[in-house]
Specification:
The chain is of the alpha/beta class. Helices cover about 40% and strands about 15% of the residues. The chain has a 7-stranded mixed sheet, with helices on both faces. Strands 7-8 form a two-stranded antiparallel ribbon. β2, α4 and β3 form a beta-alpha-beta unit.
């Protein structure tokens, strides 16, 4: 399987933090005085009180902005931190990449003094509600079926907590999977797809038929007719969830 040393080369360009999603994440972190970001990538959504980023890919670390929190190259399953090292630990769109989920969650609980915040998605809802994977690229959804973690399972591993829907604005500037739900032409751009792991890790041959059908539907106006209701919406819930748990 490809790693973020190859997948992540364009992330700093296509994966900029969206301020509306950032506000929800910061609210979930509450009054945490110091935060560790696990699976930090290039540093999106890190609040000012972030004291350390943990990221396994050197390519991703090298894309962090000047002035960002210091970063260490390590994995979630073996955090190089003492017990109760930070008030809060956050892990955003990362748990599905871990090789040992139970160990990773155990490490988050060990390091966090008070709160853990995880951004993930509910694959069942995602499959049902997101037109791209439901109607054009089921192959990409099939790939995510193998790695998506049920939110109830995560809550159990965390020892309890709450789930908050994260609605995706129509002009979301963070180019993750469903970001372009009202801008379908974007999915025809290979640079955009390179920043979406479920597409980047699916073969070009597997995606080609669906992308061709999407291009044709856009060209003749069929997409706009079929999904006319979407064009009236400002934001949608396609299954992204913020999990928040306190010790």
């Amino acid at each position: 399987m490809a790693t973020y040393d190859t997948l992540g080369t364009t992330y700093a360009r296509t994966r900029q933090p969206d301020p509306r999603i950032a506000a929800q994440i910061y609210a979930a972190l509450g009054d945490a005085t110091d935060v560790v970001n696990v699976g930090a990538g290039s540093g999106s959504y890190e609040p000012p009180q972030t004291v350390l980023a943990v990221e396994p890919s050197r390519v991703m670390i090298n894309q962090r902005s000047t002035g960002a929190a210091p970063a260490v190259q390590a994995v979630a399953e073996h955090l190089p931190l003492r017990d109760d090292a930070a008030d809060a630990v956050m892990a955003l769109l990362t748990v599905h990449h871990w090789t040992d989920l139970t160990s990773g969650i155990r490490e988050l609980r060990r390091v966090a003094r008070r709160r853990i915040v995880i951004l993930t998605w509910d694959q069942h809802i995602f499959r049902e509600r997101f037109w791209l994977v439901r109607d054009y690229l089921p192959e990409a959804a099939a790939y995510d079926d193998t790695r998506a973690i049920p939110t109830d399972q995560l809550i159990d591993l965390l020892g309890g907590g709450r789930q908050e829907p994260v609605c995706i604005p129509h002009d979301c500037i963070d180019g993750f999977g469903a970001a372009y739900w009202r801008r379908p032409h974007a999915y025809l751009d290979s640079h955009v797809r390179a920043g979406i792991s479920m597409l980047a890790q699916s073969s070009d041959d597997a995606l080609a038929p669906g992308l061709t059908r999407l291009a044709d539907d856009l060209r003749v106006g069929r997409w706009h007719t079929r999904y006319a209701e979407l064009l009236t919406l400002e934001a949608i819930d396609v299954g992204y969830r913020l999990l928040v748990t306190d010790h």
